[in-house]
Amino acid sequence: MGEIRFMKGNEALAEAAIRAGMQGYFGYPITPQSEVIEYLAAEEPNHDYTLIQAESEVASINMVYGGAAAGARVMTTTSSPGYSLMQEGVSYIACAELPCVVANIARGGPGLGTIQAGQGDYFQAVKGGGHGDYRQIVLAPNSVQEMVDHTILAFELADKYRTPVLILSDGAIGQMMEKVELPDPIPYKPNKPWATTGKTHDRERNYITSLYIQSDDMERKNISLQKKFRKIEEKEVRFEEYMIEDAELIITAYGVTSRTSKKIVDLAREAGIKLGLHRPITLWPFPSERIIELASDDKVKAFFSIEMSAGQMVEDVKLAVNGRKPTFFYGRTGGIIPTPEEVIDFIQKKAGEL
Amino acid sequence: MLNEMIFAGFGGQGVLSMGKLLAYAAMKEGREVSWMPSYGPEMRGGTANCMVNVSDKPISSPIVTMYDVVIALNQPSLDKFEPKVKKGGILIWESSTIKDGPKRDDIRVFAIPAVDKANKELKNVQVMNMLILGALVKVNDIVKKESLIVALKETLPERHHKLIPLNEKAIALGMTLV
């Protein structure tokens, strides 16, 4: 068993990055994420990584770009407005096919918004965010333990596919404390023959770019990127389910609302309602196949997407359900987490109308 | 057994740290715990709170709306959270500074004059939160008193360890007030 600690989500993410062999961290403080850079700055003297508090999020993501090109395990973390500033860089990194980890400890928006937790960045995370045809793997932890597990997984997936991996968490998971089990530090040996580490006499120079002036070249790049994205869609879908076997009504929820939804399922079951939970762990690739399977099941009557947004993931649920079953949405914004009571009322009302 | 609790009061009264200490002590006893602070525009003098769950089973939702235990250390917190105590639940309130006490008779109410007692008997008002915590573990044996002491030792930075005996005294004094 690993070391047990009582930690905040943000601190756990930072500690996990250290144990995953992170070599460079570039970030800019923003609530509710600042504990990550605080923790990493305090721990820096005891480890080998480089930490720079950049002058802005634009600078952070471009430092990540440079570090990744040089073959280092690199990360940046931020919260919603800061993540918006990074979009140009994320698009460049995706096109240049470089591995990196970005965490967005999301807060409520739009605009400067509120510093309370939010899930309004779903579209930005899974539909692009930056310009051009790219995708990134998006992991959505729902506990402090998963902040650890997903950070380590994110570094591995980033290296495996040479792609940015986004951890889309929220202020609630980032700020809360839970018991965590930390793994032993992972002996990380970079194997990146493509990295720009200085040309040696026995190989051609390595060249990293996201600029393809010629249309043919750009299209070839796009085709190869799309091939990679299809492979990720095939191999990396992750989800978790709760009380789904006999469920007639199904909640879809991710992140902190998947935690409250577990409680909603328990309360509904006590009241004799056959409610279950489907929780996407990877928001991209989205578990569409599984939702198609559930929607095709005769006993399933309806879907309910519960979010801290005005209705974002519900669009992907609807795409998968594709009219087979009614799909409803309940959400709160402004950093307000839907309470079990109001969600159960909503589900009962809608189920009654079916 | 699931204990859903909220600790609420002014920023600076130690509501976040007492919740954290209790959660840590419960974790040391092998229980599942979660601690969720209100964060944001709170500051010294503003209101702050933290939700603490202690359970024998994995905790589904760290966010709770009705509580087994409410600790209210100022008037706004008492007004806000008294209606949120589950029937038969526990409400502990700081009775030397809060003017309008609780009204409900379907819950277990404990008035603790923690500020007065800390000032008069311990000459240190800052350990007021530990008195309250002592009262809590007396009326609801969520954790053993010894576990709180272990938690203090393991969570306080070394330079504050000289304050542990005072905190221990405060917990013991709190236990006598219920």
Can you put this structure into words, describing what you see?
The complex is a heterodimer of chains A (354) and B (178). Chain A is of the alpha/beta class and 354 residues long. Chain A has 2 domains: 3-235, Thiamin diphosphate (ThDP)-binding fold, Pyr/PP domains (Rossmann fold); 239-353, Rossmann fold. Helices cover 41% and strands 20% of the residues of chain A. Chain A has 13 helices and 14 strands. In chain A, the strands form 3 sheets. In chain A, strands 3-2-4-5-7-6-12 form a 7-stranded mixed sheet, sandwiched between helices. Chain A has a 5-stranded mixed sheet with strand order 9-11-10-13-14, sandwiched between helices. Chain A has a two-stranded antiparallel ribbon with strand order 1-8. The model of chain A has no long low-confidence stretch (mean pLDDT 97). The mean pLDDT of chain B is 94. With 178 residues, chain B is of the alpha/beta class. In chain B, α3 crosses α4 (128-139), α4 (128-139) packs across α6 (164-175) and α5 (145-155) packs antiparallel against α6 (164-175). The two termini of chain B are 23 Å apart. Chain B has helices at residues 15-28, 75-81, 114-122, 128-139, 145-155, 164-175; strands at 2-10, 32-37, 47-55, 67-72, 85-94, 108-112. Chain B is built from 6 helices and 6 strands; from the N terminus they run βαβββαββαααα. A 6-stranded mixed sheet of chain B has the order 2-3-1-4-5-6, with helices on both faces. In chain B, β4 (67-72), α2 and β5 (85-94) form a beta-alpha-beta unit. Chain B has a single domain, classed as Pyruvate-ferredoxin Oxidoreductase, domain 3 (3-Layer(aba) Sandwich), CATH 3.40.920. Chain A binds chain B through residues 4, 6, 31-32, 114-116, 171-172, 175-179, 256, 259-260, 262-263, 266, 337, 339-341, and chain B through 20, 23-24, 27, 32-37, 39-41, 59-63, 65. β8 of chain A pairs antiparallel with β2 of chain B.
